[in-house]
UniProtKB/TrEMBL annotation:
Family stated for the protein in its record: Belongs to the class-I pyridine nucleotide-disulfide oxidoreductase family.
Pyridine nucleotide-disulphide oxidoreductase dimerisation domain span: 347-455
Matching Gene3D superfamilies: 3.30.390.30, FAD/NAD(P)-binding domain
Cofactor requirements of the protein: FAD
Lineage of the organism: Bacteria, Bacillati, Actinomycetota, Actinomycetes, Kineosporiales
Protein name (Swiss-Prot/TrEMBL): NAD(P)/FAD-dependent oxidoreductase
Length: 464
């Protein structure tokens, strides 16, 4: 029996990266056990990226339809139907939150799958000991941890009495409320606020930082706030919630803000960041501070000897593409294949609001802290041919941040109708350290939005 509870590698948590690691190591011939207490694939396919982008696709169509009268004629009354989105999420995206396809994909690659709670118990000479729902297992070669995050519920008095939503409640909703207070104006808060508003919900966003998307270029938050005003969203920035309480039937809520304002709505959506639970997965038994906000790893995603961690918990960008990027690093390290270790100077990210906000590398502020000689230039899309042609929905900008001593970009933001796609060029430029002069000297197709990159680069020589 004990052999059944021994494997070469145990992967605890099968988010996008963990699933990839387990499958690839099994395909390479290792005896791999993948453990997940919920659904194989993690947050992204069932409650994150994919369902939220399905919502955004639908909400974007509504917004475009409403722009038709300004540019193309009459299409009549646009009547949003949330049930179409809810059905598509249930039937096409999540199989009604059933992961059988993903389990079969994983076991088809040769891995074993155990549904349960995994936790590291410590290390012995035989390997790393893992408890799976209380049963002891041994991983002779090592353990990979990809357990992700859970919503961080802010210390707002009374919030525990409120029947609030996190992303899970919103994604699984068959009906939207008439009104919604969104706590947090980061990526989740902004994307879901705009979806709700475009489906007719009266939305108020409360963000305690001075602006929306506070970690990005300040122009991005201002641009999104302007778009939100057009969507009828009430944006309150620089103010946090201090108290919340139920306010009638269902999930109705009353929220008090620290400026004394009281808001009421049919539902509260908490989107105020995410938390890592080191203790729950036993990383404290291998030396990690149980109160750590992220799990420190080296450039090969090693926590310590024979323990690797990847994805949101390592804190180098809570994105599916970073989880997959780190998965590749871990697979190569476990198999001793070498290659490039992880680097984080060109992390791309896109907030899929309309306008989309794409960014890579450093913001201007972060670059000025790191480099002595920084130049920054911004082009407004309205001043480019394609942005001007686009008309309604075409607002945006491209900002480039240069380390002038080396003549390379160290950061960039592209916000606009295709901000996430334009980002591809900028991400390559930052990652490969392409000389700014060679990007200025090349031709750019006309009239494209990405041609605005050249205009921004040309301004760098006269920028400071
Ligand atoms: C609404 C929303 C929208 C998003 N949109 C995007 C987007 O557009 N693009 C993007 O790149 N990212 C997006 N993200 C972020 C993205 O979902 C995560 O970065 C991604 O899922 C990677 O996370 P992860 O690899 O750390 O693991 P996760 O996806 O968090 O999965 C962790 C897994 O570990 C399991 N687990 C946890 N603890 C244990 C345990 N002790 N034992 C066993 N199993 C355990 C969980 O059940 C889960 O299945 C979004 C997130 C949200 C919430
Ligand atoms: N398009 C994407 O790639 C995408 C989409 C959604 C989520 N994500 C990932 O998921 C992660 C979590 O998203 P998130 O939006 O929850 O976190 P976040 O950290 O991006 O934003 C949370 C916001 O809530 C605010 N906040 C915290 N406490 C508050 C309070 N008491 N009152 C008012 N505001 C408060 C913070 O100031 C912050 O701006 C992100 O870091 C992102 O990496 C990515």
């Amino acid at each position: 029996m004990s052999n059944e509870r021994t494997a070469d590698v145990i992967v605890i948590g099968l988010g996008p990266g963990g699933e990839d690691v387990a499958g690839r190591l099994a395909e390479a011939g290792l005896d791999v056990v993948g453990v997940d207490e919920r659904l194989v694939g993690g947050e992204c396919p069932y409650w994150g990226c994919i369902p939220s982008k399905m919502m955004i696709r639908a909400a974007g169509l509504l917004a475009e339809a409403r722009r038709v009268p300004k540019l193309a004629g009459e299409i009549g009354y646009v009547d949003p139907r949330w049930e179409l989105v809810a059905d598509r999420i249930r039937d096409e995206a999540t199989d009604d939150w059933d992961d059988q396809v993903a389990v079969d994909r994983l076991t088809g690659k040769g891995a074993r799958f155990v549904r349960g709670h995994g936790s590291i118990e410590g290390r012995t000479e035989d390997g790393v000991q893992v408890s799976i729902d209380g049963e002891s297992w041994t991983a002779t070669k090592g353990v990979v941890v990809n357990t992700g995050t859970t919503p961080a519920i802010p210390p707002v008095e009374g919030i525990g009495d409120v029947d609030y939503w996190t992303n899970h409640g919103f994604v699984q909703a068959r009906e939207l409320p008439d009104s919604l207070i969104v706590l947090g104006g980061g990526a989740i808060g902004c994307e879901l606020s705009q979806v709700a508003a475009r489906f007719g919900v009266q939305v108020t966003v409360v963000e305690k930082a001075p602006r929306l998307l506070a970690l990005e270029d300040p122009r991005a938050g201002e641009l999104v706030a302007t778009a939100f005003a057009e969507d009828g969203i009430d944006v309150r920035v620089g103010v946090g919630a201090t108290h919340a309480e139920p306010h009638g039937a269902g999930g109705a809520v009353k929220v008090r803000l620290d400026d004394g304002t009281e808001l009421t709505a049919d539902r509260l959506l908490v989107a105020s960041g995410r938390a890592v639970n080191v203790h729950a997965v036993g990383l404290d038994t291998v030396g990690i501070d149980p109160d750590a906000r992220t799990v420190p790893v080296d450039e090969w995603c090693r926590v310590t000897d024979r323990v690797w961690a990847l994805g949101d918990i390592v804190g180098h960008g809570a994105f599916t593409h970073m989880s997959m990027y780190e998965a590749d690093v871990v697979v190569r390290d476990v198999l001793g294949q070498g290659g490039a270790p992880a680097r984080y100077d060109a992390v791309p990210r896109v907030t899929f609001t309309d306008p989309e906000v794409g960014a890579v590398g450093l913001t201007e502020r972060a670059a000025r802290e790191q480099f002595a000689n920084v130049r920054v230039a911004t082009v407004d899309l309205g001043d480019t041919t394609r942005g001007w042609i686009h008309g309604p929905g075409g607002a945006g900008f491209i900002t480039v941040v240069e380390d002038a001593d080396r003549g390379v970009l160290v950061g960039a933001t592209s916000a606009g109708p295709t901000g996430g796609e334009v980002l591809g060029f900028l991400a390559l430029a930052v990652s490969a350290q392409v000389p700014v002069q060679s990007m200025i000297d090349m031709p750019y197709a006309y009239p494209t939005i990405h041609r605005g990159i050249q205009a921004a680069l040309q301004q760098l020589s006269s920028a400071s």
